[in-house]
Design goal:
By secondary structure, the chain is mostly helical. The chain has helices at residues 47-88, 91-95, 99-127, 129-147, 153-167, 170-179, 184-212, 223-245, 258-270, 283-290, 293-322, 327-333, 335-355, 358-378, 382-409, 414-430, 432-435, 448-481, 494-499, and strands at residues 7-8, 21-22, 37-38, 507-508. Helix 3 (99-127) packs parallel to helix 5 (153-167). The two termini are 28 Å apart.
């Protein structure tokens, strides 16, 4: 049995001669059989004219999808980490909670968040993005508002638990959603732009918290309470607007004409993406992800950057405050490291897309973080330590988006990819429980335990895991190019071969 010519997982291919051309109406995606392409509306145009139309289509997708999704993730990350800003505004003193109870309030978020994440992409696919994403936003906006109305430790714990449950579907959901719109070589920079919203939320959050805490005493509420209330109400409002601003998958997106829908689906199928197929969920897709060694090694890599991410974002204001700066000034000084991280995140996304060397990008960028936290751990000067926070941010944030795109590029199949991303991101976020408890008040102002744990995560899991994944994928590609796995498709039909997804011998992994 023969199968398509070997290809790189970041590249596309021209459709084979026997692929049929069929049209696609809105919602009629299921009518496409295996290996079929929608009819080419640009068949009579030359290559230059087709390229011009493709660029125009890509700009249309970018303008419709990316800005609003970036806003949603900015709001999401702001809402989960603003408790660090609220702490500086007097949260602990008002609620009469200890430092240990504060850390417990941080931890409970990650427990519910991580447990719910692996299943959220299945719900996203079944309920449709235009329903699922706005609904969970409204729910977590309500939870955030309730955090500002709590009066004791039990109230803040309950609100944080349900906040994690409601927020769990956004990041893995949007990452998976975008992977169903773009070719593999286009996905990295867009995921990086999307994730840079997390870094921007750090900048924006510090400025916003510095302003809102000046409302202290208004309506009988403390400044920290107003941080939660106002940001929660804004989330609810944006969630309501999202019913009209978030679109469904390409086969049902209402902003596309029938002709543009054909173009989008053709370019996905030409990239041999199963995101262009209308799969029905079966447990075999779930178990295919669970049994794949790549799923768990990607989870380790993501753990190596996500654990440090939460430690950094939750405690940066506290760390800077520990260097001797006042509460408001510490809020403001937390802004520049996030801004620098946002710029590097987008740059690495662009470089990784062009070079298709996502593993090397991870390894190179992680060095910045390792140096930065080594500076925080060993330096005595506040200026040097503050410089260390810059390098720490630069070494963490770009690796989040790059690692997720790396896993997405190397996982084929609609539901398998969704489950893999769910496990990967869920396990990474579960390490937020660790991150929430490593910066103890008794360790201030040096916080050597916290900095040491983050440094170990960066060296062992991010750098070490990326290096191991790179080596293993390179060996696997060598086997496939040498034809040593061709026996896996012997006697199988073309449909059975396609169903193997990234386990097909012709699937070449992105390094």
């Amino acid at each position: 049995m023969s199968y398509p010519e070997k290809r790189d997982s970041d590249s596309g291919r021209s459709p084979s001669d026997d692929e049929k051309d069929v049209g696609v109406e809105a919602g009629g995606f299921e009518t496409l059989g295996h290996g079929q392409l929608p009819s080419d509306p640009d068949a009579n145009l030359n290559a230059e004219e087709k390229a011009k139309i493709d660029r125009r289509l890509l700009r249309k997708l970018d303008l419709r999808l990316i800005p609003w999704l970036c806003l949603l993730y900015l709001i999401s990350f702001l809402d989960r980490t603003n408790i660090g800003n609220a702490r500086l505004a007097g949260l602990e003193k008002s609620l009469h909670i200890t430092a240990g109870q504060y850390n417990a309030a941080l931890s409970i978020f990650f427990v519910s968040y991580s447990l719910a994440e692996p299943l959220t992409n299945i719900l996203l696919k079944r309920l449709r993005p235009s329903v699922f994403i706005p609904s969970i936003m409204i729910l977590w906006g309500i939870c955030m508002t309730c955090m500002g109305l709590t009066h004791n430790f039990h109230g803040i714990m309950a609100a944080r638990f349900f906040l994690g449950l409601a927020e769990a579907g956004l990041f893995p959901g949007i990452t998976y959603y975008l992977s169903c719109w773009y070719r593999r070589a286009e996905f990295g920079v867009r995921a990086a732009i999307f994730f840079s919203a997390a870094a921007l939320s750090g900048s924006f959050g510090g400025l916003l918290a510095a302003a809102i805490q000046n409302m202290d005493g208004i309506g009988g509420k403390r400044g920290w309470s107003w941080i939660f209330i106002l940001e929660g109400l804004a989330t609810v409002l944006i969630g309501i607007l999202s019913y009209w601003m978030v679109y469904d998958f390409p086969d049902e997106a209402t902003f596309l004409s029938n002709v543009d829908r054909q173009r989008v689906i053709r370019r996905l199928k030409a990239d041999q993406q199963s995101s262009a197929e209308h799969e029905e969920f079966r447990m075999t897709y779930f178990w295919a992800s669970v049994k794949d060694w790549k799923t768990w090694l990607y989870a380790v890599i993501y753990m190596g950057c996500d654990g440090p991410l939460y430690a950094f974002s939750l405690f940066l204001p506290t760390i800077i405050n520990g260097l001797g700066y006042t509460s408001v000034r510490a809020q403001l000084l937390s802004v520049p490291p996030y801004a620098a991280a946002a710029m590097l995140t987008v740059s690495i996304g662009y470089i990784a897309d062009r070079t298709r060397q996502r593993g090397l990008c991870n390894m190179g960028v992680s060095i910045f973080g390792i140096i930065g936290f080594a500076m925080l751990l060993s330096a005595e000067s506040p200026g040097v330590q503050y410089a260390g926070t810059f390098l720490g941010a630069l070494g963490i944030y770009p690796c989040i988006a790059n690692s997720i795109v790396w896993a997405s590029n190397n996982t084929e199949g609609v539901y398998k990819r969704g489950v893999t991303l769910g496990f990967m991101i869920g396990w990474g976020n579960l390490n937020g429980v660790v991150s929430s408890n490593i910066y103890q008040a008794k360790d201030k102002p040096k916080y050597r335990t916290g900095h040491g744990v983050v440094l170990a995560y960066l060296v062992l899991f991010l750098l070490g895991g990326s290096a191991l994944q790179y080596v293993l994928l390179k060996k696997e590609n060598a086997k496939r190019r040498a034809g040593r796995l061709d026996h896996l498709v012997t006697g199988k039909s073309e449909k059975e071969i396609e169903a193997l997804g990234d386990m097909r011998p012709d699937f070449i992994y992105t390094l």
